[in-house]
Write a structure and sequence with these properties.
alpha+beta; five-stranded antiparallel beta sheet; 16 helices
């Protein structure tokens, strides 16, 4: 039987889309990685025990100088990362926007493959293809081209490679990506154990990205080896018999378009970050909010699971008022709770604890990628909600912090930290106002006297050093109107369930 040289239209179209989507995923994924360029196999991320460190900086648990995880962030070039230069918020927006289109494209490809019968070209049906693929590799190493399989468009090693990419590597990337989601891990704690924990999933995801990158490089080399005009004819026009000049022109235009999209995405994100946040957020925010709604936390870790070292992000307040509260052991601390409520209150810590104290051992997930398990003691947010009785029009709880970021963070940023959280999320069973950590009073670096715990969200939503709480029906007039300090200043998403 003669070799097949024709490719269905759905293969041509999905292949072109995959060139765009996979490269966008890789570049935006590199941006996410730059926020904490260290990889671990075990949860807790103890400093010095990473298996890979893509940074010269090495912070340790015994360092005399205080440090926070934001100090580990790197500024990688926009040619490599999307959008580059420590733009984690927009990098995540591009990543989670693209992944949705990539998954849909892959699903269409899989369905059409089985409907059309094209699956015979990718799915091995006999073990004899394995030794034949090994012989093919030897043929390539002798700078010769092996013969295609009878009646199929690929040789044995190509078929096995494409099968592995479509049916093994791509699903593994999706699965390991879900294994890093706080909403997924909160709802299904055992799921993360399939990868050895969140850090195992993160490491596997990174290795999968490397595998995709190697595949792309080898794929491009093979196109050159087989001949660009004939390969472009098959890839972009679906037939080796197509006019080689037309194929080269069409293929070049597709690749130039992909490059222009990358340039446009980078320039748009860097020159108009707020507009990029809003445009990308139309899709991404809904995606993350849906995950947050579905991911109600059901974590029940054991004391033996508590991390030996728990990273910190954010330096404590430096003003005299906070220093005075800390010196007094926070006995004079009072929490005002108001806004659109029937019964506004001002509570001391003992009065707040009197609403109903509980403990939970949960997994903290930072947006930078690290995580740590700890026991938190405090009052369920629902107990406070029941106490103040918010109006039916309330959509968010706003948590105001005591730390002025112009003093504690700098970097051209300013204002007091705050976060607005949708009511559906603060009503979750394990949403907690924490006053204790690991059986002791909450440490200053972890948010004393009071911090928020939202176990299906990323850490930046869990406000530390809480000064006041307000119930509102509109967040557009608070801060810069994006729903939180990080959303305002760093273009993060408002409901980070992944």
């Amino acid at each position: 039987m003669d070799a097949v040289t024709e490719f269905p239209l759905f293969v041509v179209v999905t292949h072109a889309l995959n060139i765009l989507f996979v490269t966008l995923l890789i570049r935006s994924g590199i941006e996410v990685l730059s926020s904490m360029p260290k990889l671990y196999w075990s949860d807790g991320c103890p400093p010095g025990r990473e298996w890979l460190r893509l940074s010269r900086d090495n912070y340790g648990a015994a360092d005399r100088r205080p440090w926070v995880s934001l100090d580990e962030e790197r500024h990688w070039h926009p040619v490599i990362a999307l959008p580059g230069r420590a733009n984690l918020g927009l990098g995540r927006h591009w990543h989670f926007l693209t992944v949705q289109f990539w998954v849909v494209t892959g699903a269409v490809y899989i369905v059409m493959m089985f409907v059309s019968g094209y699956w015979h070209n990718l799915v091995p049906t006999q073990w004899s293809i394995v030794p034949e693929a090994i012989r093919n590799v030897g043929t390539y190493l002798h700078f010769q081209l092996p013969e295609q399989l009878p009646g199929q468009p690929f040789d044995a090693v190509q078929k096995l490679t494409y099968f592995a990419v479509v049916f093994l590597l791509a699903p593994l990337q999706i699965a390991s990506g879900a294994g890093m989601s706080p909403a997924v891990l909160a709802r299904f704690p055992r799921y993360g154990r399939l990868f050895g924990g969140k850090q195992g999933a993160r490491s596997i995801h990174f290795l999968g990205m490397c595998a995709f990158s190697v595949f792309i490089v080898v794929h491009v080399v093979m196109v050159a080896v087989h001949g660009v005009p004939s390969e472009f004819a098959k890839i972009f026009l679906g037939s080796a018999e197509a006019d080689p000049v037309v194929a080269t022109v069409v293929g070049s235009l597709v690749l130039v378009t992909v490059v222009l999209v990358h340039i446009g995405a980078t320039v748009f994100s860097r020159t108009r970050p707020r507009q990029a946040q809003r445009v990308l957020g139309v899709v991404v925010h809904r995606f993350e909010y849906l995950l947050s709604r579905l991911g109600s936390s059901r974590q029940q870790y054991r004391r033996s699971d508590i991390s030996e070292y728990h990273r910190v992000n954010g330096y404590p307040p430096t003003d005299d008022n906070y220093q005075g509260l800390a010196a007094d052991g926070f006995r004079s601390y009072r929490l005002p709770v108001g806004g659109l409520v029937a019964r506004p209150v001002t509570l001391s810590l003992p009065e707040l604890a009197g609403l109903g104290f509980t403990h939970q051992i949960t997994n903290h997930n930072c947006i930078q990628g690290w995580n740590g398990i700890a026991e938190w003691g405090g009052v369920p947010v629902t107990a406070l909600i029941d106490r103040v009785r918010p109006a039916a029009s309330v959509t968010h709880m706003v948590f105001y912090a005591m730390d002025d970021k112009a003093l504690t963070e700098g970097r051209g940023r300013y204002g007091y930290f705050y976060e607005a959280v949708p009511m559906s999320i603060v009503r979750a069973p394990q949403a907690l106002l924490a006053m204790e950590m690991n059986g002791a009073p909450l440490p200053i670096e972890h948010g004393a006297p009071l911090r928020l715990r939202l176990e299906n969200q990323l850490g930046y939503k869990m406000v530390k050093w809480i000064e006041a709480i307000e119930f509102v029906d509109d967040i557009t007039e608070i801060g810069m109107g994006q729903g939180g300090y990080r959303e305002d200043q760093l273009y993060y998403g408002n409901t980070p369930g992944i």
